[in-house]
Amino acid sequence: MKLNGPISHSYLDDGKEEEETQAKEVSSAAVRVVVGYALTSKKKKSFLKPKFIRLARNKGIEFVPIDLKRPLSEQGPFDVILHKLAGKDWSQVIVDYKRVHPEVIVLDPPDAIQHLRNRQSMLEVVADLELPDHYGKVCIPRQLVIPKDPTSIPDEVAKAGLRVPLVVKPLVVDGSAKSHELFLAYDHFSLSELETPMVLQEFVNHGGVLFKVFIVGESIKVVRRFSLPDVTNCDLTKISGVFRFPRVSSAAASADNVDLDPSIAEPPPPPLLEVLARELHHRLGLRLFNIDVIRKNGTKDMYYVIDINYFPGYGKMPEYEHIFTDFLLNLVQSEHKK
Ligand SMILES: Nc1ncnc2c1ncn2[C@@H]1O[C@H](COP(=O)(O)OP(=O)(O)OP(=O)(O)O)[C@@H](O)[C@H]1O
Ligand SMILES: O=P(O)(O)O[C@H]1[C@H](O)[C@@H](O)[C@H](OP(=O)(O)O)[C@@H](OP(=O)(O)O)[C@H]1O
Ligand SMILES: [Mg+2]
Ligand SMILES: [Mg+2]
């Protein structure tokens, strides 16, 4: 796996690349790859942008919506099925289709995606990795799952020795807005008001900057985003309670072109990201995901993985149009060779 260029400069479309894409357009190539997709309307809007569709068509890739009201067996044939829908029924539809059409490439297998639907199991995979530490150490924040009874939280937190502040995250990630409703807790006591099942995760100071590492098959791209600011000891003496916080790192503002302290802004070394991405790709059996990585403030090379997302917001990844279309072409070509 290879990191695709240095940290990206900006994912904000300045229109220049659009002109280039149009200038290169000669005529649509014959369709070589049919991609059937099952995506939420939000995902469709953010990912299947007109510029992307146009470039894909020029390369011989056609995107066809899957009609969820009709049997999948009556649709297609598809070379690739691209999907991000939750639910057992949908997973079964894919499994059944794959049984009849073993040649279809499913991005990605429902069983593999399942791992990322639970914030505990998603990070356990990282904790189990035994990566060489020449380029830095990769760990996960200490965390505790509260499956049901929130009244037991103060005791359990004390028993587990977790230190405040704590990030409170819903255990299950199902694509709903609710599963991204996060809180920062400055003490244990108000936690009992929150909804279970939840994960309590130690907050790691990281200078307010996060690295989003996007994986598309063999390609890796890293972007810098703003994150939550550090919490000082002084804050801890003054503040108490639980506060909901917005989706800071998925906001539109990129931290790529901003002047920041280099010890905070410097992305993790490419070899570290390459080995991390490769290992997670193998262990998870996924080709489309991203990894949220932070560097513990005050250290040179202590990295924490705090989140992994299936089929993330590629629409915000620079050059995703080219990277994704090349990925699809290579994928189908290597499948044909097999
Ligand atoms: N343990 C942690 N230490 C420090 N900051 C954290 C931690 N966990 C989460 N954060 C901050 O909260 C943000 C949201 O957390 P997380 O990425 O787990 O949520 P999410 O809802 O899954 O987000 P995404 O939109 O990336 O799927 C992170 O991007 C980061 O800014
Ligand atoms: O681009 P990052 O910062 O990784 O955040 C993504 C989330 O991780 C994904 O869960 C979102 O996709 P879904 O709304 O399909 O779950 C995804 O939504 P999008 O594809 O509509 O942008 C993003 O919000
Ligand atoms: Mg995240
Ligand atoms: Mg996430």
UniProtKB/TrEMBL annotation:
The GO molecular function terms of this record are: ATP binding; inositol-1,3,4-trisphosphate 5-kinase activity; inositol-1,3,4-trisphosphate 6-kinase activity; inositol-3,4,5,6-tetrakisphosphate 1-kinase activity; inositol-3,4,6-trisphosphate 1-kinase activity; magnesium ion binding
Give a yes or no for keyword Phosphoprotein in this entry.
no
Q: What is its EC number?
A: 2.7.1.134
For this protein, the record's InterPro entries field holds:
Inositol_tetrakis-P_1-kinase (IPR008656), InsP(3)kin_ATP-grasp (IPR040464), ITPK1_N (IPR041429)
Which portions of the sequence form the region Disordered? Answer: 1-23
Q: Which superkingdom heads the taxonomic lineage of this protein's source? A: Eukaryota
The UniProt record gives the binding positions of 1D-myo-inositol 1,3,4-trisphosphate as K43, K84, H180, K212, N309, G313
| Residues that bind Mg(2+) 1 | D292, D307
According to its UniProt entry, the protein's GO biological process terms are: inositol trisphosphate metabolic process
Q: Inositol-tetrakisphosphate 1-kinase N-terminal domain location, by residue?
A: 34-113
Q: How is the cofactor bound?
A: Binds 2 magnesium ions per subunit.
Catalytic reaction(s) noted: 1D-myo-inositol 1,3,4-trisphosphate + ATP = 1D-myo-inositol 1,3,4,6-tetrakisphosphate + ADP + H(+); 1D-myo-inositol 3,4,6-trisphosphate + ATP = 1D-myo-inositol 1,3,4,6-tetrakisphosphate + ADP + H(+); 1D-myo-inositol 3,4,5,6-tetrakisphosphate + ATP = 1D-myo-inositol 1,3,4,5,6-pentakisphosphate + ADP + H(+); 1D-myo-inositol 1,3,4-trisphosphate + ATP = 1D-myo-inositol 1,3,4,5-tetrakisphosphate + ADP + H(+)
Residue limits of the Inositol 1,3,4-trisphosphate 5/6-kinase ATP-grasp domain?
Answer: 134-329
Query: Where Mg(2+) 2 is bound, by residue?
Result: D307, N309
Can you name a GO cellular component term?
A: cytoplasm
Q: Which cofactor does it need?
A: Mg(2+)
Give the keywords, sorted: ATP-binding, Kinase, Magnesium, Metal-binding, Nucleotide-binding, Transferase
The free-text function statement in the UniProt record for this protein reads: Kinase that can phosphorylate various inositol polyphosphate such as Ins(3,4,5,6)P4 or Ins(1,3,4)P3.
Assembly: Monomer.
Similarity annotation: Belongs to the ITPK1 family.
Q: What is this protein called?
A: Inositol-tetrakisphosphate 1-kinase
Source organism per UniProt = Sesamum indicum (Oriental sesame)
| Phylogenetic lineage | Eukaryota, Viridiplantae, Streptophyta, Embryophyta, Tracheophyta
